[in-house]
Write a structure and sequence with these properties.
The complex is a heterodimer. By secondary structure, chain A is mostly helical. Chain A has 18 helices and no strands. Chain B is elongated, with a radius of gyration of 22 Å. Chain B has 2 domains: 30 residues; 76 residues. By secondary structure, chain B is α/β, with parallel strands linked by helices. The chains are: A mainly alpha, B alpha/beta.
Chain lengths: 414, 122
């Protein structure tokens, strides 16, 4: 039955299956059958990889994505874990899950510097890897992150349609995100899930790539699964999900399209329930977010918003980045490729998200209890990755539409 | 023709952008990627490796840090996460310092490894 489906649909199902395995993995850690569950998760991932390899034979984009995955896995396994957040937050949480044999080990708030309120979906997979291997070390656990890169790349490969566009996307991803994909940080992975979710929502609600051979139900389940992983990557994932929902509703309202409430609920509810459950657990254990609890957020916010120097520092750190070059290019492309309304709507959706997300970051930095210069210097480039990657994707979506129009025109010429 | 140019340029940029990953790549680590405790010397300051050896040797469940080991944010953070499941506890009797750190008179020297010292403070 699976083999009879169109190859785009097969690819989307495989990406969805991997996302569902990641989600199941973290909840299986709550049970005490950790050896059995680790074996089950390992076998499920291997089965999905086997099916992806089979699918790659007939699909050059998927074959390319597999090569990228292998390259990133080798690079990760050949690098020591030295980055600050990788060690002090993500791998420390994974080590605690593995050694304490409990998903919520960090909620005792030991070593508060390690941001114990951060979600545990990725650390849980690293802990599962350690359980499968049988011990802990300072190299392989972070390779769990590379598995998370695979589903969004498969979505890009399935929806962009050509090897050329997938290659351009991966090149842009490498240039913008670089080694943040392999050094144990989460910002690159967060950006990928944001982009993949918005691509799937653009197809479902805005009619982008309407001729792609994938059913609405497949797209809905894929969007739901990617969104659920997105909120499990980092706290910013929940903020991104809220902004995505707002921008989608805004885009539908501006374009006077029907808002399918039931479909929206189906896609967004599981993610928000998961996020709510995690926040509730943190609250019950007395674990708070450093920005929200240390110092007065509103007090700092009101002081800084009237301070030109602070606003200037934040503006420079957030908006004077070389890869924001994609913003004027995307706006120019929307102006040039007006022929296809669906593509313009989808691109506008992404553009609105990028701008609103960056404004949200601006507001968070205004209220940050940390030393502003230090906070910006250590995080502004990373936190803006979803914005720059969204603008790049926006540009590629319009380019994809333009090339498909050119190809159609050439094909239909006498 | 245009398609080939885009492919060639794309591949060239892809190779160029991949260089960033190779800067931290070490083929010896790749060979040891799944060995127990591998990658520690490449990932951590030497003091933390010595500290952990002393904690493991004495099978401590709790420890405390003093001097530079406690005040330096990097050393403090690395000590806490690498020594886990041994936990940092301000009330622990086993205190670790770098050589030359002055401690209170109720502390006695127990052991050392390189420049990391183990004291017991009653």
């Amino acid at each position: 039955m699976f083999a009879n489906k169109p190859r785009e649909e097969q690819t989307l199902w495989l990406a969805t299956a991997l996302c569902l395995i990641f989600i199941a993995n973290q909840y299986l850690w709550l049970l005490n059958f950790t050896y059995i569950s680790s074996a089950a998760i390992g076998l499920s991932i291997l089965t999905a990889l086997f099916l992806i390899i089979r699918s790659a034979k007939a699909n050059p984009q998927v074959a390319f994505v597999l090569l990228v995955f292998c390259f990133l896995a080798i690079m990760t396994l050949g690098a020591a874990t030295t980055a600050w957040d990788a060690r002090s937050i993500w791998l420390f949480h994974a080590k605690r899950i593995y050694l304490d044999d409990h998903l919520l080990a960090q909620l005792d708030n030991y070593a508060a510097f390690s941001h114990n309120d951060y979600p545990v979906m990725l650390p849980a997979l690293s802990a599962t890897l350690a359980r499968i291997v049988g011990h802990w070390n300072e190299i392989f656990p972070k390779a769990g992150n590379v598995f998370f890169i695979l589903p969004p790349l498969l979505v890009v490969a399935a929806t962009f349609g050509t090897l050329r566009l997938t290659l351009l996307f991966v090149t842009g991803l490498f240039l913008i995100v670089g080694d943040l994909l392999t050094n144990g940080f989460m910002d690159g992975i967060l950006s990928l899930y944001i982009v993949a979710t918005m691509i799937l929502l653009s197809m479902l609600f805005l009619g982008w790539q309407a001729n792609l051979k994938a059913s609405k139900s497949t797209l809905s389940v894929a969007a739901m699964a990617h969104l659920a992983v997105l909120i499990g990557v980092k706290n910013e994932g929940t903020m991104a999900a809220v902004i995505i929902l707002f921008c989608l509703l805004l885009t539908l309202a501006i374009n006077r399209k029907r808002i399918d409430i039931s479909k929206l609920l189906l896609i967004f509810t599981p993610a928000f329930i998961m996020s709510g459950l995690w926040l509730l657990l943190c609250y019950l254990h007395g674990v708070g977010n450093d920005i929200a609890t240390s110092g007065s957020f509103m007090g700092t916010f009101t002081t800084r918003i009237t301070d030109v120097k602070s606003a200037g520092l934040i503006s420079i750190a957030l908006y004077c980045q070389k890869w924001l070059l994609f913003l004027p290019l995307a706006i120019w492309s929307i102006h040039v490729y007006r022929k296809n309304q669906q593509a313009v709507d989808a691109a506008s959706f992404l553009l609105r998200f990028g701008l609103l997300y960056s404004f949200s970051l601006f507001l968070i930095y205004l209220g940050s209890p940390h030393n502003l210069e230090w906070h910006l210097a250590t995080s502004a480039v990373r936190t803006m990755l979803p914005v720059t990657l969204t603008f790049m994707t926006c540009l590629l979506m319009l380019y994809a539409e333009n090339t498909s129009i050119s190809t159609d025109a050439t094909a239909s010429a006498p | 023709m245009k398609k080939n140019i885009i492919y060639t340029l794309g591949i060239m940029f892809l190779i160029f952008s991949s260089i960033t990953f190779t800067q931290t790549f070490n083929h010896i680590l790749l060979m040891q990627a799944f060995k127990e405790n591998s990658g520690a010397t490449e990932s951590l300051p030497a003091e933390i490796i010595h500290l952990n050896s002393l904690i493991a040797k004495n099978e401590l469940r709790k420890f405390n840090l003093a001097g530079v080991l406690n005040d330096n944010a990097l050393l403090h953070q690395r000590a806490v996460e690498y020594a886990y499941p041994a936990r940092l506890d301000a009330n622990a009797k086993d205190v670790f310092t770098l050589t030359g750190t002055a401690l209170k008179s109720n502390c006695r020297w127990i052991d050392h490894q390189e420049n990391v010292e183990h004291h017991v403070c009653e």
